[in-house]
Design brief:
- This protein is an alpha/beta fold.
- It folds into 2 domains: 157 residues, 3-Layer(aba) Sandwich (Rossmann fold), CATH 3.40.50.300; 111 residues, no CATH class.
- It contains 7 helices and 11 strands.
- The strands form 3 sheets. It has a 6-stranded mixed beta sheet, with helices on both faces. It has a 3-stranded antiparallel beta sheet with strand order 2-1-4, covered by helices on one side. A two-stranded antiparallel sheet has the order 6-7.
- It is globular and about 50 Å long.
- About 11% of the residues have low confidence.
- This is ABC transporter ATP-binding protein.
- It comes from Amycolatopsis acidicola.
- GO terms for molecular function: ATP binding; ATP hydrolysis activity.
- InterPro entries: AAA+_ATPase (IPR003593), ABC_transporter-like_ATP-bd (IPR003439), ABC_transporter-like_CS (IPR017871), ABC_transporter_ATP-bind (IPR050166), P-loop_NTPase (IPR027417).
């Protein structure tokens, strides 16, 4: 890995109780570099991704990102009461909101998209001490939906003025610009014409493409992909591989892809890392130009499978 760094991890330790998940882990990701991270279940792959996303600050060591971060998870996490375009621009003007639509409070506790903490006591809003409606979204004494700062929002979470017109966080009309940004991002993932669709009408692959559009609309310096294709069928997954490769080529963010799929890693990444015993145990640099075929890296595939402890299945 050469060039300017977008992410740096040094001596990172993470424990869950007495169990060490990450131990003195070191990692660097270059600006515009595509890195795939493989490892057995429970090896700490998703934990590392969450730390880089700022979703898990309770660690020891250094984990820093020089720029903006977006995340796309295995589940698209679309809000069913918002149309597709509003899901794409969800939290775009609030730096505390990640691409998943989940907001993270100062303590790292997950809170809802409207600013209400997600807690055990349903119907309670611990942000402002207000009541919550049946969907867990905070309302003021007049029954109006409000955000975490008590500002009036409509039923979809958009700020509105006294006449009910959608405005941005500064009280200026902002819907037109956001809609244009959403439509541009949707066109990049081949979902033209779906801006006004409801999430429940989308297929699994379409929903995941909306998730990618939501991540890319922020023009991130680092894109974190947490097994985003794991729930898709084989044919849809292959199409998503091509789409992600095209999007990466067009935007050139640094990428960290967490996956269990060795072939997926070999097709997409510049480097393939294997995580084991809490640290990076091997690194494989892929020099073949894209687009690639699986036959381009048969020897590397055998080595990666051996690193994962499944060398008995490493056949061609």
């Amino acid at each position: 890995m050469a060039g300017e760094l977008i992410a740096r991890v040094r001596g990172l330790d993470k424990r869950f109780g007495d169990r060490a998940v990450l131990s003195s882990l070191d990692l660097e990701i270059g600006r515009g570099e595509f890195v795939a991270l493989l490892g057995r279940s429970g090896s700490g792959k998703s934990t590392l991704l969450r730390i880089l996303a700022g979703l898990d600050p309770a660690v020891e060591g250094e984990a820093s990102v020089d720029g903006t971060v977006s995340v796309a998870f295995q589940q698209p996490r679309l809000l069913p009461w918002r149309r597709v375009w509003r899901n794409v621009v969800l939290g775009l003007h609030d730096q505390r909101v990640g691409a998943s639509g989940a907001r993270v409070g100062p303590s790292g506790a997950r809170v809802g998209a409207s600013g209400a903490r997600v807690g055990a006591a349903r119907g309670q809003d611990t942000v402002a001490g207000t009541e919550a409606d049946g969907g867990g979204r905070p309302v003021n004494g007049r029954g109006q939906h409000v955000d975490g700062r008590g500002q009036h929002v409509d039923g979809t979470g958009q700020h509105v003025d006294g006449r009910g017109q959608v405005v941005d966080g500064r009280g200026k009309l902002g819907r037109g610009r956001d809609r244009a940004l959403a439509e541009k991002a949707l066109s990049e993932v081949h979902l033209e014409g779906h801006a006004d669709a409801w999430p429940r009408t989308l297929s699994g692959g379409e929903a995941q493409r909306v998730s990618l559009a939501r991540a890319l609309v922020r023009e991130p310096d680092l894109l974190l992909l947490d097994e985003p294709f794991g729930a898709l069928d084989a044919l849809t997954r292959l199409a998503m591989h091509r789409l992600v490769e095209d999007l990466w080529s067009g935007h050139r963010p640094g990428v960290l892809l967490v996956t269990h799929d060795v072939d997926e890693a070999l097709l997409l990444a510049d480097r393939v890392l294997v995580l084991g015993n809490g640290r990076i145990v091997s690194e494989h640099v892929l020099r073949r130009p894209r687009p690639r075929a699986l036959s381009d890296h048969l020897e590397v595939r055998t080595d990666v499978l051996a690193d994962l402890g499944v060398s008995e299945y490493a056949t061609t």
